[in-house]
Amino acid sequence: MSNLTTYEYDIFLSHNHADEDWTARLAERLEKEDWLGRKLRVFFSPWDIRPGQSIPLEIEKALPKSRKVGLIMSPEAIASAWVELERLVTNYIAVSARQERLIPLLRRDCDIPALVQHILYIDFRDDAQFEESYRRLLAVIKDEPLQRTSRAPSSNPISPLPFIPRTLIVDFVERQDREGRDILQQLKDELAPHKRQLVVLSGAGGVGKTTLAIEAAHGLMDVFARRILWVDAEKHTNFGFPTLLDEIARQLGQPELMKLAAAQKEEALQPLISSAPMLIVLDNFETITPEEQETQSAEYLAHRLPCSSLIITRQKISVARNIPVLGMLQTEAHKFLKRLIEQTADPSIFTESVCERIIETVEGVPLLIQWVVAQINLAQAPEEVLDELAHGVGEAAERVFDRSFNLPQMAEGGRAVLLALSLFRPSATRPMLGEVAGLGKDKDKKKFKKAQQTLASLWLVKQTDGGQRLTVEGLTRALTEAHLSRDPRSKTFRQRLVERFLRFAKANAKPTAAELNALESEKDNVLAALNVAFDSKDWESVMKIVLAFGQFLYIHGYWEEAIRSGEQALKAAHDSAVKANIAVFAHNMAIIFQMRGELEEARQLYNDSLEIERKIGNRSGIATTLHELGRLAQDQGEIEEARRLYNESLEIHKKLGDQSGIAIGLHQLGMISLDEEDLAGAENLFNQSLIILRKLGDKKNISQCLESIGKLRVAQGRFTEARSLFDKSLEMAQALGAKSLIGSVKRSLGLVAEKQGKKTEAGRLFREALSIFEELGSPEAEKTRGDLERVESEAFSSGVVGIDAIEN
After folding, report:
1. What's the pLDDT at 18?
2. Which of 187, 224, 311, 558 is deepest in the core (most CB within 10 A)?
């Protein structure tokens, strides 16, 4: 067993921003575990690195003080800071100790780094199998033997790790309403599982609503058997009812439901939600548009959701049980203030009279108390601060915030950084923030660092992703946005945001794994920049962002966002009256509609595009649209029409010398030959296509062509060769993150497994493919569902007990 006396933490969790929510839930669960007469201790950087501390230095301190190091592996983690992590491991963990101390945790498919290839990882990819993986991890952390029996997974997999945010700067202070009733107890009573009602925690910004909700959620964890879902509307651009359903599906471990239409999604979620007591919390409800609040989300939570729910917002909601929250009572405020003062540089300056004046000035609002304490701690002159606040203009929140905003120390870049940060959703990397704030040059580094320190000391910004990113939340965001709307630099900040993320999207526009992962990490910010460009009618930037970013949205399956951004680009093209651009965006939107099975919408858009291309004489555009119309005809079984369109498109591509167009045309003609059982003709066409694609280095289409040749081998009865080709195709598709292609290849592998009599393997592959197709809202889901039903029926009739039975 490890020497316990030398370690401060039981496990250090290394993670990437893309996995932060999941890691937070894991850390929270681990810290509830008992061991050797105490709770496990976890180092998780967002919790253990305080504002103003050096992130690299604190990590270097914590790593050698941790008995175990959990390495959460995902494509983003491997692509980002892995080199630095390897340096730290090499410096602080001896080679002989690495097998004992390092625990690789595979969250999503990625290349396993050489550093840990020799160490058996714990597989956390499948949320339905979370409990088994968690038990293994817990045994390793505690240096206990692994369990030698297995348990069947739950038939209703749920979110294994309820994520409840941590916002407490000091220990929780109990709150009472004006009638002396315990607000926390009221919350717990009203949210009891048997009541199945919507409760609203309402009050002004900063009064502590979210803190109360967090404490209630922790207190109800056992009552709801950890089935608590936390959704923060502020973290989403254009939050609406479909977003709420998506978050519920994601946190229930059912991402395949996310791309269904809202009505279908709601219906599919009902049995999952009602299978056991559950609590759903929706925070920052006031950030949703009034129309959406009135007609969708609140009505769903109040009348159609079969479980308890809680909305946290600033206004009362008529259809719910409302619990109002006002400022703290005197005794509560004094207790809260005392705990804050203990963290200041000189607690002695906070005399009894100063404390009384602070509470009176801010009307007992806890967030405002924090801000005033921070101002006094910075100035070391409490009377001066309080006198200035007393003569300020507006409500208490505005007076206190405005004083922080207008401090002389904020003139050194602090105001610019805060205003710029309010444009990012939900957070910003430091380099990108510096650039948008106008402090991105080498000569501005010290000024930018000082600005961040000032903002952190005033409790105006928060760190995420282990301190690598910054964010502004809640009331602070709302007040900052109000300042930005009237700041003369607003237009400049917005232009910089658009320019920065346009460059970023263009720099990562190739469909390679590294570039797709880079876009994934900044997806919300690129969409935010697109919205800024659209609102300012910067049509050129709108179209350029969508052109650079659209392929990522398509490949990674964000089809709702792809359609919405496509509509923005089409509007931009129409308003700028550039016909060629109208044709391009109509064509691109048609592809998404076709993939979703909305064929009439697709056909109309293709024809609109083709008409324009013919008028302007764009032969390349004509050829491309003819090819897509051929695919549409092929999907609808119009084989001769498809062949005609493909050949017409191919002839144009040949005249233009467009090798990519030629290769894709040959491939589709090969698919027709394969469907007609002209195997020799199909082989010839596929091989011609593959030769061209390999010369071009077009990995996505190479992967697709390999799958097609694999299908040909299946038709020839050469199953071993087929599986090898499918495996190569799948490896390339996974490296690209091409969800639609991954689903297609998994289905192909399932079909060949079925032909070889491997029913269990076939069922597993069909399930995986179905999950992807349902997530994408693809018409291929129906075919794959039929495959799964067929193989399960055959397995049952042949005497196999359950599709998951182990084959010998």
Report:
1. 77
2. 311
- Spell 531-553 as b/e; 16+ CB within 10 A means b: bbbbeeebbebbbbbbbbbbbbb
Residue 465 belongs to domain spanning: 409-487
Boundary (domain end) residue, out of 457, 487, 517: 487
- Mean pLDDT over 782-791 rounds to 88
What is the rounded distance in angstroms from the CA atom of residue 253 to the CA atom of residue 257? 10
Q: What is the dihedral of CA 649, 546, 256, 239, to 10 degrees?
A: -150
Residue type, 58: E
Residue type at position 270: Q
Do residues 161 and 28 touch, judged by C-beta distance below 8 A?
yes
Cis, peptide link before residue 157, omega less than 30° from 0: no
3-state secondary structure 331-374: HHHHHHHHHHHCCCCCHHHCCHHHHHHHHHHHCCCHHHHHHHHH
What DSSP assignment string belongs to 20-86?
A: HHHHHHHHHHHTT-EETTEE--EE-HHHHS-TTS-HHHHHHHHGGGEEEEEEEE-HHHHHTTHHHHH
- Does residue 175 belong to any structural domain of this protein? no
Tokens of 787: 């495959």
Residue 47 lies in a domain: yes
C-alpha–C-alpha distance, residues 372 and 377, integer Å: 8
State how many domains the chain has: 6
Per-residue tokens: 448: 């930018």
Same domain, 577 and 669: yes
Longest dimension (CA), the chain: 93
pLDDT on residue 160: 47
Cα–Cα distance list, 509 to 159, 521, 544 (Å): 34, 14, 11
Give the 3-state secondary structure percentages of the chain, helix then strand then coil, rounded to 5: 65, 10, 30
Same domain, 469 and 535: no
Instruction: Decide: helix, strand or coil at residue 618.
Output: coil
Output phi, psi for 312, to 5 deg: -110, 120
Q: pLDDT tens digits for 676-703?
A: 999 999 999 999 999 999 999 999 899 9
In this structure, the number of other CB atoms found within 10 A of the CB of residue 66 comes to 22
Interatomic CA distance for residues 752 and 265, integer angstroms: 31
First to last CA, the chain: 38
Which residue, 650, 655, 651, 680, is CA-closest to 665? 650
Q: Contact, 204 vs 363, CB < 8 A?
A: no
CB 379 within 8 Å of CB 347:
no
Which of 384, 406, 428 is a domain's end point? Answer: 406
Question: Which residues neighbour 277 within 8 Å (Cβ) at sequence distance 6 or greater?
Answer: 193, 223, 224, 225, 227, 307, 308
Report which of 426, 422, 438, 433 is spatially closest to residue 485, judged by C-alpha positions. 422
Please work out, in degrees rounded to the nearest 5, the angle formed at the alpha carbon of residue 25 by the alpha carbons of 60 and 298.
Answer: 135
Which stretch of DSSP H or E encloses residue 390? helix 382-390
Cα separation of 607 and 791, whole Å? Answer: 40
Report whether 252 contacts 269 (CB < 8 A).
Answer: yes
pLDDT tens per residue, range 396-420: 999 999 999 999 999 989 999 999 9
Cβ-in-10-Å burial (0-12, 13-18, 19+) of 602 comes to buried
- Cβ atoms of 516 and 556 within 8 Å: the answer is yes
Question: Got the DSSP string for 783-803?
Answer: HHHHHHHHHHHHHHHTT-SST
The tokens for 510 are 């190739």
Q: Output the domain CATH number for residue 229.
A: 3.40.50.300
pLDDT at 148 over 60: no
Helices (H) then strands (E): counts for the chain: 38, 15
pLDDT on residue 74: 86
